[in-house]
Amino acid sequence: xxxxxxxxxxxxxxxxxxxxxxxxxxxxxxxxxxxxxxxxxxxxxxxxxxxxxxxxxxxxxxxxxxxxxxxxxxxxxxxxxxxxxxxxxxxxxxxxxxxxxxxxxxxxxxxxxxxxxxxxxxxxxxxxxxxxxxxxxxxxxxxxxxxxxxxxxxxxxxxxxxxxxxxxxxxxxxxxxxxxxxxxxxxxxxxxxxxxxxxxxxxxxxxxxxxxxxxxxxxxxxxxxxxxxxxxxxxxxxxxxxxxxxxxxxxxxxxxxxxxxxxxxxxxxx
Length: 270
Hints:
Layout: E1 6-11, E2 14-19, H1 24-30, E3 54-58, E4 66-70, E5 81-83, H2 87-103, H3 108-116, H4 138-146, E6 152-154, E7 161-163, H5 178-182, E8 191-192, E9 196-199, E10 202-208, E11 215-218, H6 219-229, H7 240-259
Parallel strand pairs: 1-5
Antiparallel strand pairs: 1-2, 3-4, 3-5, 6-7, 8-9, 9-10, 10-11
Helix pairs in contact: 2-3
């Protein structure tokens, strides 16, 4: 049996234990140490696009050398010494947010975060195109992780953008809206009604719960999920509320049967 290696490191003068393979950001989040992020999400592999989570590191064996690294990517090391906030880090984050405010001057999220670092008006030329997109790539990555690959980044430099193929409604989009839910700035908009979800130029017909009639997901997403999982499509036609209620009713019924001497004892997971 293999044993997980335990690593000791120092963050802001305090010592912590971590498992091998964890990143500095993993430990900081676990311990409630604030490090700002925009392109990070625990459900996806980190890529360090936004650079906002930069921290300073050094080590007793490095003879005084220290440098800035992205905490979402840098793995913990035995004896590592981490500083999450000092003048150098603060100025680095301030510059990043200054640039983001120039790109997305109307984004409430960026305005608020930039203000925390003293930037209320960008010192750079404002973007002529109105957008809330900071090109973090979370939407593209979650779409790829789901297996749809409906959207992607296009262009380079100041012309880079998140785009649909040939600027048309993406044929591979399943309407799940995962891209909109994961977007940190609300750049991707969608509209839901009891009958239809509108996103990326599509209008997807919604599947309704067979028990309560609540909209669950688009038909195309249900077909995609059923094929991917190998489950009967009927499995997805009950909403989470009704599914939970049915489970509770099943447990209660089993206990009622036991109370009158019918059925086998039921063990309830604790």
